[in-house]
């Protein structure tokens, strides 16, 4: 919570118990003035947000109580009783919980040498759109580009946190009014829209988001990578992210009907995997069961579609490097890919199948499909959350055959699946989000340092980068490096 929010809540918590004592020394008018000053300062300096509505109501009730201190005894008794035994506890609990559970949070400040610029690019792929019913629809993509920028002016406009369409999609997902997320306007980002790209040229990373998530809900992760000298192309897989804002003002949201359609009857595919892990089968006995099932699961088709999305963008990079705001800024011989969740699996598929990609990272995603039968021909990092022991570790089978080059298996202890997103900052209550008990900033620091070190070593070919040294820096990081099938 912000400073004046805390001051306001402490004032509202203590004042009902001490105002009478204060009134023995000061006029009630001064007490009222002090209370109103705290409320006004919070509103003026930090702004109104609905999470503080119970606090504002409490403030009004306290003003009424203090103002009517000289009223008749019967009136005082009734008002005091209602405040003390009914309204006070009913309002005070949500007054603390709401702003704490949904705070105006602080994003980690990027540590790299560059400022961070952003811009958006609209692409019509001219492929048939498989998700909508209109046969004339073509697949359209809106990308957010994060890039290194030279120093920016002190008063330069900052990027707003998550675009309005993604906010509406997020609100719809949880049955909230869109205005419920207006408080995100107060979140300070470290990105600056449409500032000039820094001098020089930089490696390029494609990033694929999680299924049904905010495509731009990865500010902490992507800002850091851009500050370290990478151009990051933030994919937004239309109708499978929470929201896409097109330049003509139209919007596309996650298609829940399509999700139900493609996920129908999929339990018959996934059940053999679940039963294989729950049973007493050893790894070798379980392997063929997993192998057969992962070919047919519906997320395999999603990842294939997302791979094609990313290949469409790869096809455009030579043109973008000759004209437009990225002109001359991209090293097209240093292309990498990374992603989270379903996007992490898609990143693995792209790294497996497209020779233009030189290195890839999967952040806690299952890579469905054919990887189980083959090996990567390039460096790859698989970074996992700290799943419970009963979780079906499908990737232990998928990545049994690793890489002819370097392959890294890593896990961050005390994390959950959403820890690679901004979610633990946005909602710092692990029981609500599925995040782990790790401090959100520490979890993100480990993630970004590991991903940066991996791409620095295997995309930029910085020979002095020691990825495994991170194990000594972070006791919550488990990391194994393989070259071929040998542990390094």
TrEMBL record:
Keywords in alphabetical order: Hydrolase, Lipid degradation, Lipid metabolism, Membrane, Transmembrane, Transmembrane helix
Organism: Leeuwenhoekiella polynyae
Gene Ontology MF annotations: 1-alkyl-2-acetylglycerophosphocholine esterase activity
Name this protein carries in UniProt: Platelet-activating factor acetylhydrolase isoform II
Gene3D superfamilies: alpha/beta hydrolase
GO BP, one annotated term: lipid catabolic process
Keyword Hydrolase assigned: yes
InterPro entries (alphabetical): AB_hydrolase_fold
Taxon lineage: Bacteria, Pseudomonadati, Bacteroidota, Flavobacteriia, Flavobacteriales
Domain of life where this protein originates: Bacteria
Regions that span the bilayer: 6-23, 30-45, 51-67, 79-98
Keyword Lipid metabolism part of the UniProt annotation: yes
């Amino acid at each position: 919570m912000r400073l004046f929010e805390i001051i306001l809540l402490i004032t509202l918590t203590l004042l009902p118990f001490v105002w009478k004592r204060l009134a023995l020394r000061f006029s009630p008018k001064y007490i009222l003035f002090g209370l109103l000053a705290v409320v006004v300062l919070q509103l003026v300096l930090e702004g109104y947000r609905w999470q503080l509505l119970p606090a504002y109501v409490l403030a009004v009730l306290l003003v009424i109580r203090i103002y009517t201190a000289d009223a008749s005894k019967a009136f005082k008794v009734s008002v005091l009783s209602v405040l003390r035994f009914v309204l006070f506890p009913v309002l005070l609990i949500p007054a603390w919980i709401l702003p704490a559970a949904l705070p105006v949070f602080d994003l980690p400040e990027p540590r790299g040498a560059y400022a961070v610029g952003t811009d958006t690019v609209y692409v019509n792929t001219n492929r048939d759109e498989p998700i909508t019913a209109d046969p004339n629809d073509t697949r359209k993509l809106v990308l957010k580009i994060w890039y290194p920028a030279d120093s920016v002016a002190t008063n330069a406009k900052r990027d707003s946190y998550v675009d309005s369409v993604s906010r509406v999609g997020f609100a719809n997902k949880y049955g909230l009014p869109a205005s419920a997320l207006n408080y995100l306007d107060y979140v300070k980002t470290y990105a600056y829209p449409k500032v000039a790209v820094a001098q020089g040229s930089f490696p390029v990373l494609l990033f694929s988001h999680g299924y049904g998530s905010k495509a731009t809900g990865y500010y902490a992760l992507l800002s850091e990578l851009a500050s370290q000298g990478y151009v990051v192309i933030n994919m937004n897989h239309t109708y499978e992210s929470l929201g896409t804002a097109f330049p003509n003002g139209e919007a596309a949201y996650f298609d829940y009907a399509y999700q139900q359609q493609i996920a129908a009857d999929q339990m018959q595919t996934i059940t053999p995997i679940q039963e294989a892990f729950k049973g007493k089968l050893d790894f070798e006995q379980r392997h063929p069961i997993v192998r057969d099932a992962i070919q047919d699961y519906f997320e395999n088709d999603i990842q294939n579609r997302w791979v094609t999305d990313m290949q469409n963008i790869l096809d455009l990079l030579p043109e973008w490097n000759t004209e437009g705001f990225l002109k001359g800024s991209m090293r097209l011989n240093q292309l990498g890919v990374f992603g989270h969740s379903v996007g992490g699996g898609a990143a693995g598929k792209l790294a497996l199948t497209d020779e233009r990609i030189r290195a890839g990272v999967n952040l806690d995603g299952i890579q469905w499909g054919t990887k189980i039968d083959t090996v990567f021909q390039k460096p790859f990092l698989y970074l996992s959350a700290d799943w419970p022991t009963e979780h079906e570790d499908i990737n232990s089978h998928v990545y049994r055959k690793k890489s002819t080059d370097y392959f890294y298996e890593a896990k961050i202890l005390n994390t959950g699946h959403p820890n690679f997103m901004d979610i633990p900052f946005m909602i710092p209550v692990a029981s609500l989000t599925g995040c782990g008990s790790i401090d959100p900033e520490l979890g993100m620091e480990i993630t970004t340092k590991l991903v940066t070190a991996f791409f620095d070593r295997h995309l930029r070919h910085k020979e002095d980068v020691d990825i495994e040294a991170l194990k000594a820096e972070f006791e919550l990081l488990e990391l194994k490096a393989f070259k071929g099938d040998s542990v390094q």
